[in-house]
UniProtKB/TrEMBL annotation:
NCBIfam families: murA, PRK09369.1
Keyword Methyltransferase on entry: no
The protein's name: UDP-N-acetylglucosamine 1-carboxyvinyltransferase
Lineage, top ranks: Bacteria, Pseudomonadati, Pseudomonadota, Gammaproteobacteria, Enterobacterales
Source organism (scientific name): Buchnera aphidicola (Brachycaudus cardui)
GO molecular function: UDP-N-acetylglucosamine 1-carboxyvinyltransferase activity
GO CC terms of this entry: cytoplasm
Length: 416
């Protein structure tokens, strides 16, 4: 596995172009199964997770070509089960289940993979499908699902807000008979993008972005074109890169509206922020951040996927900051690596208390998950000395050209 060797002590300054959203592109790719007609998708990020999703589609029989835009033709799909070695590599593979079930009335998949940041059950996905009429058997980590005829629209009250389960139910309900109402739905921008994509194909979805989504099932979807939204978590990560390194950055091709809660916290930390239609500028030159208190929550709250990056900001801030994680129960594994770099962090229940110090020192660190990987790379960029970042598999799952983009901002990262 690749390692990164980082010479630290750098200010990160300049312009960065934000890639398409991983967490919007992945479900959209699997939803191409819902139609027999050709679909063109642009702004798909070049990531390991996307490669795996495409391999899964190809395994099922899809024909895929790429020329700046991904063209996907799923009319040839004739396999309804997916292989263990692919499905278990990514969390997003769960989203193959509902489209197969909706179009072919059957699917067989293993439990999905993804970041090990908690137990991450899939009960809400499966219960949603069962409510819509599917029969599901779960045995030996394998899900066997089938349905007689079309699924039937229902009122579904989500007992917990889940991005993934909201997407599964939207997907199934699109081709179901009658009206489905998802109450207490996730409100993330990725959900809005998915609804926009499905509506382009002829679906009838309203309310995405609110906590109640109404889906009137249609018999068939057509083909169409879609451009994936910018990656708000990649944007937030680069803003933290500049804020933690006393830098000045412009993130281009992004969507400032999707980052409200993150921008509020960066401003509270002392950053000077300006936004335009598709750009965000952050200036933190000659300033140490002020420590922040943060509590993660579903959108529009502060994203759990930005928790680790902001913990890094607190490590070198003035004062004491408390970050509380409410979404995943095991998302602080990376803190031991930051402590090895000198950070003063204590874990108490689902919070980390950080006493800011002026600088971190280099170390040999190991990446436990995706956002932690990016955080440890940024820590290496600002620490004194040479940091070696090991286990970078997760980093390349979710960030396009991360070392290159950082090097263009003045970092010195070598892939070894
Ligand atoms: C590929 C992708 O888009 N991943 C994102 C997605 O993950 P993912 O879709 O897995 O996250 P969810 O929103 O579903 O999870 C939220 C909470 O609900 C729980 N839960 C979820 C499903 C279920 O059936 N039962 C259940 O109990 C989870 O364990 C977690 O505690 O949203 C998370 C929350 O914003 C992000 O951190 C991930 O980056
Ligand atoms: C947790 C994440 O990804 P996944 O759900 O794919 O594991 C993430 O994107 O931060």
């Amino acid at each position: 596995m690749k390692k990164l060797c980082i010479e630290g002590g750098k200010n990160l300054n300049g312009n960065v172009t934000i890639s398409g959203s991983k967490n919007a592109a992945l479900p959209i790719l699997f939803m191409t199964i819902l139609t027999e007609e050709k679909i063109n998708i642009s702004n798909v990020p070049n990531l390991k997770d996307i490669d795996i999703a495409l391999q899964l589609l190809i395994y099922l029989g899809a024909k895929i070509t790429y020329n700046k835009t991904l063209s996907i033709d799923t009319s040839f799909i004739n396999v309804f089960s997916a292989p263990y070695h692919l499905i278990t590599k990514i969390r997003a593979s769960i989203w193959i289940l509902a489209p197969l079930l909706a179009r072919f009335r059957q699917a067989k998949i293993f439990l999905p993979g993804g970041c090990q940041i908690g137990s991450r059950p899939i009960d809400l996905h499966l219960n949603g499908l069962i409510k819509l009429g599917a029969t599901i058997n779960l045995k030996d980590n394998c899900i066997n699902a089938f349905v007689k005829g079309r699924m039937k629209g229902k009122y579904i009250l989500m007992e917990k807000i889940s991005v993934g389960a909201t997407i599964t139910i939207m997907s199934a309900a699109t081709l179901a008979e009658g009206l489905t109402i998802i109450d207490n739905a996730a409100r993330e921008p990725e959900i809005i993008d998915i609804a926009k994509f499905l509506n382009t194909l002829g679906a009838n979805i309203i309310g995405a972005g609110s906590n109640k989504i109404l889906i009137k099932g249609v018999l068939k979807l057509t083909g169409g074109n879609h451009k994936v939204i910018p990656d708000r978590i990649e944007t937030g990560t680069f803003l933290v890169a500049a804020a933690a390194s006393k830098g000045f950055i412009t993130c281009n091709k992004t969507e400032p509206k999707h980052l409200n809660s993150v921008l509020i916290k960066l401003t509270e930390a002392g950053a000077n922020i300006k936004t335009g239609k598709d750009w965000i500028k952050l200036d933190m030159r000659n300033k140490r951040p002020r420590a922040l208190n943060i509590c993660t929550s579903p959108y529009p709250g502060f994203p759990t996927d930005m928790q680790a990056q902001f913990a890094l900001l607190n490590t070198i801030a003035t004062g004491i900051g408390i970050i509380t994680e409410t979404i995943f129960e095991n998302r602080f594994i990376y803190t031991s690596e930051l402590i090895n770099m000198g950070a003063k962090i204590k874990i108490k229940n689902n919070s980390i208390i950080c006493n800011g110090i002026p600088t971190l020192f280099s170390s040999n660190v190991f990446c436990p998950d995706l956002r932690a990987s990016a955080t440890l790379v940024l820590a290496g960029c600002i620490a004194i000395g040479i940091t070696v970042v090991n286990q970078t598999y997760h980093l390349f799952r979710g960030y396009e050209s991360f070392p290159n983009k950082l090097n263009q901002l003045g970092a010195n990262i070598k892939i070894i």
